[in-house]
Design brief:
Blueprint (H helix, E strand, L loop, with lengths): L5 H6 L1 H4 L5 H9 L2 E5 L3 H13 L3 E5 L24 H12 L4 E5 L8 H5 L4 E4 L4 H14 L3 E7 L2 E7 L7 H4 L14 H19 L8 E6 L4 E6 L11 H6 L4
Parallel strand pairs: 1-2, 1-4, 2-3, 4-5
Antiparallel strand pairs: 5-6, 6-7, 7-8
Helix pairs in contact: 4-9
Length: 253
Amino acid sequence: MKEVSKPELIRYNRQLIIPEWGAEKQKELKNAIVFIAGAGGLGSSVSIYLAAAGIGTLRICDFDTVSASNLNRQILHNDTKIGKNKAISAKETLSKINPNTDVLPLTEKITQENVSELVGESKIIVDCMDNFQTRFILNKCAVEKKIPLVYGSIYGFEGQLSFIQVPETPCLKCFFKEPPPSETFPVVGVTPGVIGCLEALEVLKYLTGIGKNLKNKLLVWNGLEQDFRKFSLQKDPNCEVCGKKMEIKNGNN
């Protein structure tokens, strides 16, 4: 495993002095690989704070290019990046935030056929997408690779969050049977900032083993009321991804 250097111990000092943290936890982060699906609004906050915390490798996947309409919320990018691939732009920004973090930009569109290769040996998947079709692909991949998926979504002044780790929790398909209609939805920039930071926190808690992840719960945030609510989630025994239907499909009894 890679060791944490003396300059890095200085960089991360304020988190190292957290009683449960220390140099060993920092070493775990340095040797971790995290897959971030999307370098937009959510992906910006997630990747910036994971890089700042000292994650060793970020695999950031986004096939889209930066446009002016992204800039109210996608803080990885700026006017000079318009027209550039978002994953490549993300690498350029993050290398300035923390040169100790290796950023691998993946410019392909996530599909059922390539998702396993894109995720690679990542220890966790962070969903920073804006469509459920891709979320369902990521969810299935997480189940098959037996790694966690951090789900986050936003709309206007509202956001949702959950930590999915089958078989301890339901999978995404258990509580979202069908994708909502595709649309260009409203969003104020601070909303993906809030939810993205919470997603990053779930990743750090999982990799360090500090605290409790948001398992079997859906956190719903209403920014206009500054209201956080948690709702219990239940597994669907007949889920086609993690339940009996999946077992029948795979020929298991």
